[in-house]
Amino acid sequence: QVQLVESGGGLVQAGGSLRLSCARSGRSLVRNAMGWFRQAPGEEREFVAAISWSGSNTYYADSVKGRFTISRDNAKNTVYLQMNSLKPEDTAVYYCAAANALAVPTTRREYNYWGQGTQVTVSS
Q1: Radius of gyration of the chain from Cα atoms?
Q2: I need a surface site. Which of 34, 65, 91, 103 has the fewest CB within 10 A?
Q3: Strand 118-123 relative to strand 10-13: parallel, antiparallel, unpaired?
Q4: Exposed/middle/buried for 44, CB within 10 Å: 0-12, 13-18, 19+?
Q5: 29 pLDDT exceeds 90?
Q6: DSSP summary character for residue 83
Q7: What is the pLDDT of residues 31-89, one digit of tens each?
Q8: Taking phi first (over 0 means left), then psi (-120 to 50 degrees means alpha), and beta for anything else, what does residue 88 get?
Q9: What's the CA dihedral at 73, 76, 82, 88 to 10 degrees?
Q10: Can you give the pLDDT at residue 28?
Q11: Distant-in-sequence, close-in-space partners of 124: CB < 8 Å, separation ≥ 6
Q12: Edge-to-edge strand order for the sheet containing 18-26?
């Protein structure tokens, strides 16, 4: 099993930045692709970004491309989401997820493990 714990959420003004972290524990030899999803009140959970196990391949939703950067440090068992130029529409609970894949899956059904989520609120 893989356990994921997100941190780094909070309240920020529009145009500001936050960095989310996701710490992974459990089986250490699994080559997990990692992803970030978000869910606003009354909306479906949507894909934000994903990174391959090696960190060599990434993919972003159009809504965050150019503003967000996903990265990982396998030595620290941690994946990051750097969020710049934040907008009020970025307000959501952000979830870290892990998939048993070498590529960069973008759908919820492709991910096997999920964190508890961390709240990000962007004020205007």
Answers
A1: 13
A2: 65
A3: parallel
A4: exposed
A5: no
A6: E
A7: 789 999 999 999 999 999 999 988 899 999 999 999 999 999 988 889 999 999 999 99
A8: alpha
A9: 140
A10: 64
A11: 13, 14, 88
A12: 2-7, 18-26, 78-83, 68-73
Q: Is 47 in a helix, a strand, or coil? A: strand
pLDDT in tens, 64-78: 999 999 999 988 889
Tokens at 67, concatenated: 């503003």
Question: Does residue 83 contact residue 18 with C-beta atoms inside 8 Å?
Answer: yes
Q: Distances in Å between the alpha carbon of 123 and those of 12, 13, 35, 78, 89?
A: 6, 5, 25, 28, 9
Q: How many helices (H) and strands (E) does the chain have?
A: 0, 11
Mean per-residue pLDDT for 115-122? 98
d(CA 38, CA 95): 6
Identity at 116, one-letter amino acid code:
Q
What sections of the chain are H helices per DSSP? none
- φ, ψ of residue 109 in degrees (nearest 5): -70, -20
- Letter for the amino acid at 37? F
Contact 9, 18 (CB under 8 A): yes
